[in-house]
Write a structure and sequence with these properties.
The protein folds into two domains: 154 residues, 3-Layer(aba) Sandwich (Rossmann fold), CATH 3.40.50.1970; 187 residues, Dehydroquinate synthase-like, alpha domain. Helix content is 52%, strand content 12%. The protein has 16 helices and eight strands. The strands form two sheets. It has a six-stranded parallel β-sheet with strand order 1-8-5-4-2-3, with helices on both faces. The longest helix is centred in the middle third of the chain and has 21 residues. The N and C termini lie far apart (42 Å). Bound molecules: zinc ion (ZN). Zinc ion binds next to helix 6 and helix 11.
Length: 358
């Protein structure tokens, strides 16, 4: 069961000022974890500065880390946190910033509250109890109830400056998380509700040329719902296969997930009943039929999804070619274990090979 989390959705700057002030009002000192230039350009810095200076709130900032949190950087963060003894952590940024703030609190064995302010619509990390940490170059997933942020402020205008490519990567990650939660062997009624809500919010707007304010709101709330869905179920094979494509070949997370996604969408929609690993195939089949109709992929899920992904600019990039076996062997067995239909080495290798296909 998920620990209680308090989420505020703000429509305009004034809403944000009010929500932020009331959440930090009782703190004496903040520890603000944030990214680099995006922290300034997306507008969150000026609003935070304005409110903290009005409240004469003291704070210490921490931005000394790169994307995809490394344990060395987390250790530095823990040291800075302990030296400053703040009583609230504010995490303002994308998935890596959220993970960094969560990891710092976890490794500091601290119980001070985290206020998460996402500035991208992707990972939903503001609402999950896990965080990715690279220890000596190897990806570890920390999964602990205690790292779920206590408060979240969703303010879509922070994403208005996100580039098309960043929006595609983060938005597709959220969509994939929702879908992977929906077909997941661990799916529950609650996770399905979050997952379907996320798919309905994200899928119709993600491929648009121009995103309206309303579209950005849908992406942000959709990403948050997707986060809540995978907090219950975890992800499946497209995520399990993505980590090496990111750590070794440089594909951003959402792009890496997109690469094998059409293959697995096709497999889970069209795959044989004999491969089913759950205990209610009829229910699974009905869910997959619903998914097929929501995604409107008809009888050609593979090519329809491939086309959607290429339109988003998330297809194979010849400049980031890879070794098939290295990617296949990098499969995360824990995530792959959530697959609804059995997979074997041959399926994994064909999924990897499918990345170069058009
Ligand atoms: Zn993801």
């Amino acid at each position: 069961m998920m620990t209680e989390q308090h989420i505020e959705f703000c429509q305009n700057e004034n809403d944000f000022r009010i929500a932020f002030s009331s959440l930090i009002r009782n703190a004496r000192k903040l520890f603000i974890v944030h990214g680099h230039q995006s922290y300034r350009s997306c507008g969150v810095k000026s609003l935070i500065d304005e409110v903290t200076s009005r409240l004469r709130m003291r704070f210490k900032e921490f931005e000394d880390f790169s994307e995809n949190p490394k344990k060395e950087d987390v250790d530095t963060g823990v040291e800075v946190l302990l030296q400053n003894s703040p009583d609230m952590i504010v995490a303002a940024g994308g998935g890596s910033v959220m993970d960094m703030a969560k990891l710092i609190r976890y490794y500091a064995c601290s119980k001070i509250p985290i206020l998460a302010i996402p500035t991208t619509s992707g990972t939903g990390a503001e609402s999950t109890q896990f965080a990715v940490c690279y220890i000596d170059g190897v990806k570890h997933s920390i999964n602990d109830m205690s790292i779920l942020p206590n408060h979240v402020i969703l303010f879509p205008p922070f994403t208005y400056q996100n580039s098309r490519y960043l929006t595609a990567c983060t938005g597709f990650d959220a969509l994939a998380q929702a879908i992977e939660s929906y077909w997941n062997i661990n799916a529950t009624e609650e996770s399905d509700e979050y997952a379907l809500r996320a798919i309905h919010q994200i899928y119709p707007v993600l491929g648009k040329e121009m995103l309206s304010a309303d579209d950005r709101s849908r992406l942000m709330t959709g990403a948050n719902d997707a986060g809540k869905a995978i907090n219950i179920t975890r992800t499946t094979v497209p995520h399990a296969l993505s980590y090496t494509l990111t750590s070794k070949y440089g594909y951003p997370h959402g792009h890496a997930v997109a690469l094998t996604f059409p293959y697995f969408l096709n497999y889970y929609l069209e795959g044989p009943e004999s491969a089913y690993r759950g205990d209610d195939y009829e229910k699974y089949k009905a869910k997959m039929d619903l998914l097929r109709s929501i995604l409107d992929v008809g009888s050609k899920p593979y090519s329809a999804m491939k086309e959607f992904i290429c339109r988003l600019g998330l297809g194979f990039d010849p400049k980031r070619d890879f070794d098939d076996l290295t990617v296949a062997h990098g499969l995360n067995p824990e995530r792959a274990g959530n697959t609804p239909l059995a997979i074997d080495d041959l399926i994994i290798l064909s999924a990897v090979k499918s990345i170069r296909e058009y």
